[in-house]
Amino acid sequence: MTEPAEPGVLDRLRARFKWLDRTMRAQQRYNDRDGNFYAAGITYFTIFALFPLLMVGFAIVGFVLSRNPELLADVGARIKSAVSGDLGDQLVELMDSAIESRTSVGIIGLATAAWAGLGWMANLREALSAMWEQRREPASFVKTKLSDLGALLSAFLAIVVTVALTALGSSGLIVNVLDWLGVPDFPALAVLLRVVSLVLSLLVSWLLFTWIIARLPRESVSFRSSVRAGLLAAVAFEVFKQVASIYLKSVVTGPAGATFGPVLGLMVFAYITARLILFATAWAATSRDNLAAAPVDPPDPAQIITRVQVREGLGPAGAVTAMAAGALGALGLSRLTRRR
Hints:
Layout: H1 9-16, H2 18-32, H3 35-66, H4 69-82, H5 86-100, H6 102-132, H7 141-168, H8 171-181, H9 189-215, H10 227-251, H11 255-285, H12 288-293, H13 315-339
């Protein structure tokens, strides 16, 4: 009798440390449900949606400048003073042509942004649903797109609220408020404001990630299942932001970094953020409570296969049987002749 194999080092560590076992289960769910593939798709649609959003921004600026001739003249004068010669005149002409075509640019930008935004939301919702291993009947194309549009608008509203709360909690705004209130400056004020700003940013990120994990999948889950996962994603996101800010400052100093650094930095930022959200979702979905409540797949149907074996000739077994029958027949015949 063979003895059972001794558990490996990782198995012993997982049995000893519950947090490690939970992390490994989440990573296994993330890999099994193609988390990297979904994160890459989310990153693609994030970068793709920026260009139509820039078009919309240019259109808005064009509408503002067209209704403020003094501001338009001031902008043109600043361009000519910064860039002398024919190049400055060409830039002013380019600005004037962009303002004239502001309506068409805005319409095309809005249409393209809506299409890219729906693709982004559909990819994000499918990714979150895959992490939760949700099983649902496929809906019609129109119903799915309307659902994605509603989720996109709600996500846009949540992001706007998050940005507004983050801006309200920024240290610069708090300093201006304290100056307006007449609060005197003291050495520890900068450190205190930095801590307050970081805590407020962490709380806002916690709320946003919890809402994404719980409400954006195709089938909503309870906030109770997503609160800890949202906190995990918020803490990791704040650490990543601090590291990314230091990295970008060191990258954009050179000519190549100033040209390609912002785009590459944005791609890395979107990809890491998508991975954080999906891993946090997998972490929430692999808790023992959620695993116990998950539906169990029925066993596969049994297949009964009838085997029909056709043999030509006697074969070994048939030859032995025939020889035995012949020997018994000969023996019986010899006994009958002797008795006669």
